[in-house]
Q: What sequence folds into this?
């Protein structure tokens, strides 16, 4: 049993070796027939598979399979040529039957048919597939950075978890490898078509020479014998080659298909019934042209017009327009029975006045929600679960993932419609005040421009709200072409949710109130009661602990490891009372967490500070009422900001957040210096990075003073 399994595991290797032997060992006509039939069968199977897959990666072995089948056809060609020339034109029953069937006693007809098949394969299918594969490979590689950014955005907003992000990154890499391989594999098919013409000429000319010189046959006899064998051999080689070439074209032209070719073709033709009716009408008009076959035209025209009319009626019955007013939609969000006739406006006003006579009701008006999101009427379907909206489910996923990553539970997000906004607008508020605003088109997709844009797609120019990337709103029918051009295409809900999640992350430190700090400490008591009893409030108060956690969150440092944070506070508080200094010690203790968050693939790209600049910063530190503060000269400050502006552009091209690396003494002061100018820039110290990380400096900020 083990031997059989080993043979099956190495079956492909054995087949490739046998194909190579075909080039050397003579094969009997019986086995030639078997191999030719297998060749045709494999070509047909490959074509059917390519028509039924949803995406190219489902048939990822195709480039290697293309090489194997091409080598197999070459082996058969060599064997059949040897048999034709050495056996007086006999090369098995399949070749003879194919030659006789096509020729029908006329060699010229057979030659013409063979040349047509070869030229169609060579000039039409192969040429087109080769060009599409080349373009697909280039655009796939160009689109990789944008797709990686989209994955990072979905991961950051909680739409996907780490495992799904890894799977999507792996898929992007596989796509790039696949289309790169296809770009080269199409050249193999092109060479195979050229070789078939050469082999056919060799068979015919060699057969004529052997038949007339060695066999003593007349030219008519030679033409009759060897033309059948030559044309038959050419056809049995070109038919499977044509099938595989067609499969190649289908795979490289269906890069963004959502279903099998059969389902897509039927579905898209059925979606355009008016086109069928118009085409049928044009055929009906052609009946009036003298000499045209009236019965055939009339039959096809009637079928197309009737079919189009039937599909149109069916679409109208199944998907007629539904008119729903704003009140109806919001009532649907309220619950069952909400579509019934409500009270009049006067009755509502009287009930409201009666309600506010209770002073407790008035107090409800001054409550401030931690996070609110208001949106215009057109965006209600994205939120309304009764209409299929997925916004609430996606927010739940984001809250869970953010809690797992950062250690902070995001408070509930209040979603409400607003009559003060435009229909396509939304506003994000933190503690009652607007912090972000955006506008989306619900029936469009947002296409993010790739770094190296080679060809633009028509659309409405805009800026992606979360990351500020130049983008275009495109219609659904342009989505496929946009992805081919290298754009990263995002649906409207993902655009809005990504903006919400990035805004919440940016203001997370404002959401950490005293009540949440108490909850976090109570949760830690279940694991380490002695540590909490020792530290809080004996060593640090709840307010002081809140300040430390806020400092960490403000710079994007997770607070999940509360045990390490509190232990460091206890150790530091013996000699240090300044909370900023204690926070710096905590950051060093969390070096593994910081390294994991900012490191990619064992390396970290950063901007460093020149030694002279760090010395100047240290000498510029001044004692104040609230501790040390940095008092740099205006010239030095302006120079630093200008240099950082230039370095930030490099990070935008790399597709990562800008990082400045400093010494531990300088870090906190340099951060306070630049935070108002570059709020998205991270400042780390050397002590916060693990020793096994390779640091790559992409720039350096030096001390430049005009004298």
A:
């Amino acid at each position: 049993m083990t031997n059989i399994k080993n043979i099956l595991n190495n079956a492909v290797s054995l087949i490739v070796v046998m194909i190579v032997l075909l080039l050397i060992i003579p094969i009997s006509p019986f086995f030639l027939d078997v191999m030719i039939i297998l060749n045709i069968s494999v070509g047909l199977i490959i074509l059917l598979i390519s028509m039924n897959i949803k995406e190219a990666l489902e048939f990822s072995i195709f480039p290697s399979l293309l090489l194997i089948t091409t080598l197999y056809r070459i082996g058969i060609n060599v064997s059949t040529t040897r048999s034709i020339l050495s056996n007086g034109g006999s090369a098995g029953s399949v070749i003879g039957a194919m030659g006789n069937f096509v020729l029908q006693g006329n060699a010229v007809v057979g030659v013409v048919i063979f040349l047509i098949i070869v030229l169609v394969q060579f000039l039409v299918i192969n040429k087109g597939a080769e060009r599409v594969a080349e373009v697909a490979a280039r655009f796939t590689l160009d689109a990789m950075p944008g797709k990686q950014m989209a994955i990072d955005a979905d991961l950051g907003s909680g739409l996907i978890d780490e495992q799904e992000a890894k799977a999507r990154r792996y898929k992007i890499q596989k796509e790039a490898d696949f289309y790169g391989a296809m770009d080269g594999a199409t050249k193999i098919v092109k060479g195979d078509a050229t070789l078939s013409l050469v082999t056919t000429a060799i068979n015919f000319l060699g057969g004529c020479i052997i038949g007339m010189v060695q066999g003593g046959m007349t030219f008519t006899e030679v033409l009759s014998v060897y033309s059948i064998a030559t044309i038959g051999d050419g056809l049995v080689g070109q038919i499977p080659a044509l099938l595989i070439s067609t499969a190649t074209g289908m795979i490289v032209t269906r890069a963004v298909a959502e279903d099998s070719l059969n389902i897509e073709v039927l579905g898209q033709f059925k979606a355009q019934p008016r086109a069928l009716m118009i085409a049928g009408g044009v055929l009906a008009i052609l009946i009036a042209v003298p000499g045209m076959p009236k019965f055939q035209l009339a039959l096809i025209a009637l079928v197309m017009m009737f079919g189009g009319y039937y599909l149109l009626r069916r679409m109208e019955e199944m998907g007629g327009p539904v008119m729903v007013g704003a009140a109806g939609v919001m009532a649907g969000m309220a619950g069952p029975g909400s579509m019934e006739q409500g009270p009049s406006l006067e009755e509502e006003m009287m009930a409201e006045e009666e309600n506010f006579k209770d002073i407790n009701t008035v107090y409800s008006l001054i409550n401030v929600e931690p996070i609110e999101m208001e949106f215009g009427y057109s965006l209600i379907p994205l939120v309304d679960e009764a209409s299929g909206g997925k916004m609430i489910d996606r927010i739940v996923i984001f809250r869970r993932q953010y809690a797992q990553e950062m250690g902070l539970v995001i408070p509930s997000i209040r979603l409400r419609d607003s009559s003060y906004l435009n229909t396509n607008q939304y506003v994000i508020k933190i503690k009652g005040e607007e912090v972000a605003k955006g506008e989306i088109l619900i029936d469009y997709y947002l296409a993010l421009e790739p770094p190296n844009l080679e060809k633009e797609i028509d659309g409405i120019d805009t800026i992606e709200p979360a990351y500020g990337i130049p983008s275009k709103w495109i219609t659904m029918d342009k989505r496929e072409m946009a992805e081919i051009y290298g754009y990263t295409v995002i649906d409207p809900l993902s655009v809005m949710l990504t903006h919400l999640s990035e805004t919440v992350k940016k203001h997370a430190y404002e959401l950490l109130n005293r009540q949440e700090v108490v909850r976090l400490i109570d949760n830690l008591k279940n694991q380490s009661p002695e540590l909490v009893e020792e530290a809080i409030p004996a060593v640090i108060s709840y307010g002081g602990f809140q300040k430390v956690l806020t400092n960490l969150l403000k710079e994007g440092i997770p607070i999940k490891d509360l045990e390490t944070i509190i232990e460091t506070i206890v150790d530091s508080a013996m000699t240090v009372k300044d909370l900023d200094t204690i926070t710096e010690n905590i950051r060093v203790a969390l070096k593994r967490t910081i390294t994991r968050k900012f490191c990619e693939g064992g390396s970290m790209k950063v901007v460093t500070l020149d030694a002279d600049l760090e010395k100047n910063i240290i000498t510029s530190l001044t004692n104040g009422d609230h501790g040390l503060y940095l008092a740099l000269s205006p010239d030095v400050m302006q120079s630093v900001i200008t240099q950082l502006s230039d370095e930030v552009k490099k990070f935008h091209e790399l597709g990562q957040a800008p990082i400045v690396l400093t010494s531990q003494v300088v870090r906190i002061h340099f951060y306070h210096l630049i935070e108002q100018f570059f709020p998205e820039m991270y400042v780390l110290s050397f002590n916060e990075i693990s020793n096994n990380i390779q640091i790559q400096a992409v720039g350096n900020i030096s001390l430049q003073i005009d004298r």
Q: What stands out?
A: The first helix runs from residue 2 to 9.
